[in-house]
Fold:
Amino acid sequence: MLNPHFVIPLIVTPTITFFLGYLLTLVGILPRLTGIGAPLGTPIIIQGFMIGGWKIALYQVVATVISYFMYLPFFKQADKEAASEEQENITGNAEELGV
Structure:
């Protein structure tokens, strides 16, 4: 893992979306998949329609939204750290130039 900021969502997000999909399949909300996949590179919503119909496509949208909100606080923290580092570099360069 080259970026330790994102190791937690990298592990937790797929685990949550997998178990949610598994639970929804056990309950009967999502259909069981046949094992036939879509061609590599197919966009997720189109892929959902191809492999399992509209319910799978809708679940892919829901999983994407869940993933977005799982990663969001980590991206905000990384952005805050990068902004403060950039501000320190700007301040340091200005002091070196005597501005």
The radius of gyration is 21 Å. The chain is about 75% helix and 0% strand.
